[in-house]
Each structure stands twice: as structure tokens, then as C-alpha cells.
Amino acid sequence: xxxxxxxxxxxxxxxxSALALFYSHAALAQTxxxxxxxxxxxxxxxxxxxxxxxxGPAAVTIITGEEITRQGYKNVYDALNNAVQNSGFTQGxxxxxxxxxxxxxxxxxxxxxxxxxxxLDGRRMADFPIAYEGTVNFTNxxxxxxxxxxxxxxxxxxxxxxxxxxAIAGVVNxxxxxxxxxxxxxxxxxxxxxxxxxxxxxxxxxxVNVDQLxxxxxxxxxxxxxxxxxxxxxxxxxxxxxxxxxxxxxxxGRYIDLGDACSQLSDFFDGTQISYKTSKGSYCASPRxxxxxxxxxxxxxxxNLFSSSNLTLNADTTLxxxxxxxxxxxxxxxxxPSWVSSSTNQSYFWNKNTNAYExxxxxxxxxxxxGVNRFNRRWDDTSAGIxxxxxxxxxxxxxxxxxxxSASAYRSENVVPRTLAxxxxxxxxxxxxxxxxxxxxxxxxxxxxxxxxxPEEFNQITAASRSADSSRTQTLSVALNGELWQLPAGAxxxxxxxxxxxxxxxNLPDPQINQGVFNTVTKSDDVRGxxxxxxxxxxxxxxxxxxxxxxxxxxxxxxxFAGRKDGKLTYNGGLxxxxxxxxxxxxxxxTSFRAPDxxxxxxxxxxxxxxxxxxxYRCKAEGQExxxxxxxxxxxxxxxxxxxxxxxxxxxxxxxxxGVVWSPSNQFDVSLDYxxxxxxxxxxxxxxxxxxxxxxxxxxxxxxxxxxxxxxxINRIKRYPTNALSHAGEIQEIWVNPINAAYQATSGIDISxxxxxxxxxxxxxxxxxxxxxxxxxxxKQFEGDALYDDLADLGNSDWRDKLIASVNWNKxxxxxxxxxxxxxxxxxxxxxxxxxxxxxxxxxxxxxxxKNLSVxxxxxxxxxxxxxxxSGGWPxxxxxxxxxxxxxxxxxxxxxxxx
Length: 899
Prior knowledge:
Layout: H1 10-32, E1 60-64, H2 65-70, H3 76-81, E2 116-120, E3 123-124, E4 149-156, H4 160-163, E5 170-176, E6 183-192, E7 199-210, E8 213-224, E9 227-228, E10 242-249, H5 261-264, H6 268-271, E11 274-278, E12 281-286, H7 289-292, E13 295-297, E14 299-314, E15 317-332, E16 338-340, E17 349-351, E18 356-363, H8 366-369, E19 377-393, E20 400-419, H9 423-428, E21 441-442, H10 447-450, H11 455-460, E22 462-487, E23 490-508, E24 527-543, E25 548-561, E26 564-580, E27 583-594, H12 598-602, E28 606-609, H13 616-621, E29 639-642, E30 651-665, E31 668-684, H14 688-699, H15 708-716, E32 717-719, E33 731-735, E34 739-758, E35 764-780, E36 788-789, E37 801-811, E38 814-823, E39 826-827, E40 834-835, E41 838-848, E42 853-860, E43 888-897
Parallel strand pairs: 2-5, 17-21, 29-33
Antiparallel strand pairs: 1-4, 2-3, 4-5, 6-7, 6-43, 7-8, 8-14, 9-13, 10-12, 10-18, 11-12, 14-15, 15-19, 16-18, 17-18, 19-20, 20-22, 22-23, 23-24, 24-25, 25-26, 26-27, 27-30, 28-29, 30-31, 31-34, 32-33, 34-35, 35-36, 35-37, 37-38, 38-41, 39-40, 41-42, 42-43
Helix pairs in contact: 14-15
Main location: membrane
Subcellular location: Cell outer membrane
Keywords: Cell outer membrane, Membrane, Receptor, Signal, TonB box, Transmembrane, Transmembrane beta strand, Transport
């Protein structure tokens, strides 16, 4: 295989040369060194150097596998979603209308899913193949079996000098178990008190040891039932009924009377279809339409397999192999099947029978299409990850090494039901040509619009598209760590890493979409891309004095993509001072960078539509309250246009933090840390909802319409002319192509405390608390703009602060844990004021019935609290920020044998 030459920048070449000289000298020094005693050490996220202390120059939060169960978390994602560092609003499987309902992710410090690096045992996983919100790449957290998790470590702040690109907001390292005894069967079942969303899960794990071979395996199968909006009384009906059937005169804007059609079809939509009268006439409508077709929680089946094997060749050499396989089936419902006449050509036609331009529309009722699930969307996801390598001690030295090859792949097949191109003919009859304005001419029979369909007829005008999306990543790495010289205060320790990697993705839509098979004009392009990555890095840990330790890391990453390359040298420095044995003062400073998402780079001109859209400007212009506005949450939503750009620059970040840890005894410790993160050239694909909010503020004078932000925003939102015959003043399309934003910065504090109380009669009590507060978050999109206060923005749904407190009581065979999560204020749906902070309590009781058998009872949301918000209208709660589940109960049985 030919060697690929990398041309480094002058500074980078100097760094690489220095590192090479440093390690050649260090190897000679280490070979001469002889030590009889070896300190027991562990590797903590944020460093590749093993050390005895769990505390370092940067704060690391640890969630153990036991705590995931004890604190009432359903899985790994649930535990991370509730972590106090996760202050950002994200859309996942419980969001309903989203691009990625089969995946879950987090947003540390509110900087977005793509600024948090997710690692599995210190190694990267393949991105989820479908971009989050259709824009950014991210790692899916939905399919990692919780029973094989040893612990989760969350590192605050930038760590690119250790792990490379993406580690700007922080790093999450999910560390899996490597040792266990015997076999373990775990079964868990749960349901919600108000109905819907039930769960089942069974896990089987164990260890197989044969001579020098040690293997751990785990198999997990789970099922989750969907939760529909109709299963919660506060959102089972909309206050304003949604149109289900209408006929409209385009020129006058009035609805044409449908006779007794609404009463004849009154059994539709669970018997809620009525004739709804307005100032412009009447049409058929139902207050249950939207709730019937909105899955708050997706239906899911998941099968996951994990295996970890170690073969000891001798005392200094071990071969290892880790394999993780996953199969995931997801199903949800986000919109009702519907038809609008001539939707591919202005959505109206010339009616030859009435000599008028008319628009016809029909929503297909569950009663005529064979049930509400008939139009569900489905995802079939497959993931695989492998890690192969060798680790040990270099002969004749005390240097530890590891050489590994890791690879992972993700494939998602999506089945989307669609109406066929023949649907206009089905309802309107044959097309008779076009008029002088290019509008289609029909002579339709109105009975075709108002009569009841059969499931067989519905099947004649609908089919499904099948797309296939995939992503892959692979890395070859060599790591080295050991001790250099012995100083009076201790040994200088060091570690080095060299990596070669490759990432790629493919988005392949159904070719029938572009062949005119379906009733759509929105085209879908094949999108694919790849990039190579080369990296070289080093760390050093220096005990300057007995009380003072310094650490320094440097790394150069070089990316090759789209005929160009982008490299960056990052560094990281830390300082630990221990004035006394009980007190630690720490500080860290880091530079970081992030290469642009491949989706941003390789996306061709993409078009599509949002599941729902709110036109804030028209609501304000017509003086309508958001909760009652005709233009709020309309579905399907506005069309969007998106472009990629191979010329996007890499993001550059700086972060620093200072903190103090006080641990006067083994029973008590407390820490306080301040963190600050700044990003320049941040790549953003602007949120359509935020653009619409900004447009309303610009057009109504809340923002300066002459500002560069207003000019850019208004230019991105294309509207039909106010004098258009149809859709007058409505949104035509929204342009959301990515740009390098000028600047974003955020800062805050983290506080954690732990206290262990042991008594002679009442057992032992463990009190834990973690609190995080965002002190500031400011941004500007263009260099000349003034800094914008994101915390004061009532369109920003991120948490301002979050607190998690728990108490665990152990006595005899019983263990009880109460966990309370207090969510700080967030804006209400109308963006007019803040919702009050809310506390949610979880309770778990674990009974050790015998040496091998334990039984757990878990209650989530003990007090059955649901956060209501009627200000934004249906669905009457803060979607994505809180859930409408209410109280949930779980029974878990764990049995061990063969130890």
C-alpha cells in the first residue's frame, strides 16, 4: 500500500518534529529506568495517561451503571438527557414531528448535538446516517444496552487536543464492562398510569473463560408501545377543529357549501367530524384530527448484542476484540394522509362546470383507510461496531502500548407512505388541458370528493417510498504511555497517539420520487461524501512540586475532503494545586476545533417540507394570539431549500475553567467549577422556526429592520405576493443553507456534592447533588452585529439551570433511592413569558431476596406531574422539554447463576 504524504503547515511540522524527538529521547530514558513498585492507576476521560486520582484539572462527572437503574433512568440516553450539563433542547423519539424519530441525542451546554463528542470505550462511533433536523451529523444514543455499562463519564469543555474534532462542548465516554462473574438474566416491564407507552425488556449476560481467553457477552431485547396524543386528555382534542373536507372558491376566498356531506360522514375521526361554520362559509372539520395522527412516543423493537474478549498471550501481551451489533425497528405517525387538488401546480384548478378557480381538499379518515396506523412511517436501523487490537508492554521497558483497528457502520431504511400521481385524476377525472395561466382544467363530479372511500380504493392512490441511508467510520490507532524521568515530587508521565481514519455516508432516496410516481414536486437527490483524517498527539503530566501538578497536551488533526484539506493544531493545559490533602484547586485552558459536518459539505440542493410550521409574522400582523392563530402549527408546513458548501471553514473554540474540590473525608466531598466556552466561525444551518420568529420581530419593529441579521432573515423567507390569487402572503419556501456564524459564547457553573452517613441501626445513607447554571450565552451571526443575549431570547428553549439531587438508603437486603430533578425556567409556547421551574421525582426500591435474586420496583414521576402550557395552543405542553407521560411504574427482576 503506497504511503500517503501529508504536507504540514510550518508550525505543525515543528510540532511533529518536536514530538518525534521527545519520544525518541523518552524511550531511551525509560529503558534505563527500573522501578519495583507500580501504582494502581485508571484512565479517566480527558486524558490518555493512567493516574491514581479520579480528580484532574478538568471536572469529570461519573454516572455508574448501578445509578442508571437506582435513579429511575430507563436507559443510557435517559441518564444522559437528565445530566445537568445537558442544557440544550433536542428533538428525539418523543418529539413527534422530527427528522430522526428513531434516534436520540443530547446537547451539552446548549451548543448542539454535533458539538458533543460521544465515545464508546474511548472510541468514535459512526454518525447516525440521517442528519439531525435535516442539517447536522450526530451520534445516536438510543441503542446502547444499559446492563453492560460500567460507567458514563462526562467531561466539561474543549478536549480536541486529546480526542480531535467535535469535542468543543464536552465529551461523553460510555465505558462498558470488561469483567463479570457467571450469568445474569434481567427482565423489566413497565407502563404508564394514564395508559400507552408500555415497555418490556429482557437481558442475558455472562462470562465465558477458557484458559487464557476471557469473554463477556450481553444480549438485550426490548419493546416499546407507542403513545398517541389521543391517550392524554389535555391534548386529545384541539380547541379549534382542523379542516377535514372542503371546497373553496379561490377568487372570493369563500368555502362552497358541501350540503349534508359532513353529517353523512359524522362517524369519521372517532365520530367527531362536524360542519364548521366560519365568516367565509363552512367546511367539514374535526377537533380530533391532529391528535389522532401524532405519536408522542414512537413504537420500537430493539435487539442488541455485545461481546468483549481478551486473549492473554503472556504476562505482557493481550489481544482484544469488542463487537457491538444492533437491530432497531421504529414506527411513528406524524401527519394524516390527505389530498389537495392539483398540489403540484398552485393547489387549485379551473372548474369547467362552474367556470371558477377552485381548491378541493380531503383528509382521509381512519374509518375509511383501515385504521389510524395505515399511514405510519417506519424505520429499520442496523448498526455494527468492532474494535480489534493488541495491548501490552514494550519488551525491555515499562512503556505500555496499544494498537487497534476500530470500525462502525450504521444503516437506516425508511418506509414513507405517499399519495400517487394518479390521485388528482381519481377525484377530479381526466385533465382537460391548461388555461392561459398554465392552470389545470377539470370538469369534476363533486360526489367524488364527498363520498366515503373504501380501503381498497385508498390502496389504489397510495404507495410507499423506500430510502436507504448509511454511514461508516474506521480508525487505525497506535497509543503509547509510560513514565519519563523521576522528579523529587514524582514521575513525569506521558502518552502519545497516532491515528488514521476515514468517515463516509450515503443518503439514497427512492428513485421513484424523482420519476413522477408520487404526487409531489419536491425532488430528492442522492447525497454522499467521505473524508480522511490523520492525527498525531501527545500529553505530558508533570509533578512540579508535591502539591502542584501540571499537564499539557497537543494534537494536530488533518482532514481531507471535497478536493481540499483542513488541518488544525490544538493544545490543552491544566494545573492542579493541593494546598492540603483535602483541598484541590484546578484550572484548565484548551483550544479546540471542529471540521464542518459532512452533511454541510456535501449536501446538494435539497428541498423538502417541515411537518408543521408557525407563521409568527402573520399571527402578529392579524392580531391573533398564538394559541388561537390560524397560521400556528399548520401541517404540512412550509417548504425549505437547503444547500451544502465545500468552502465552509472549520469552527475554532477556546475554553477555560477553574474549580475547587474539598474532600475532608471519605464520607464527604464537594466541588465548584466555573466553565467558559467560546466558538468562532460556528457553522449553523439556521432553524426555520427561529428564522420565522426573527422575521416577525424584524417586520414588526422589535428588531432593527436595517440590521444585517434582519436583511439576511427576510431574504431567506420567500413569500407569495400579497395580491396573489392563491396563497396570498403565505410562505413559499425558507432557505436554510449553512453559514459560518461569527461568534457564540457561553459560561456557567457546576456544583456537586456527596455525603455518606453510616449508622449502626438505621443503615447507611448516601446524599448526592449536582447543579449546573448557565450564567451567560451570547452570539452574533455576522461580524458587524451586536452581541445577542440568547438567555433573554424567549424563543430559546434551552434550560437555564438544572439540579439533580438523590438520597440512597441501604439497610440489610433493602436499597431505596429517591431522585429529584429540578428543571429551571424555560419560555412558554407563545414566547411571552417563562414557565416556572418544575421538579420531577423518581423512586426505586431494590430487594435482595437471595444471594442470586433481586427484585426492583421503580416509579418515575412519583407525583404524576405534567407540565401544561396552553399559551402556544395544542398540544398544550412544552414539546421536547417535558413529556406528557405522567407516572410510570416498572418491575425489574435480576437473577444471577453459575458464578
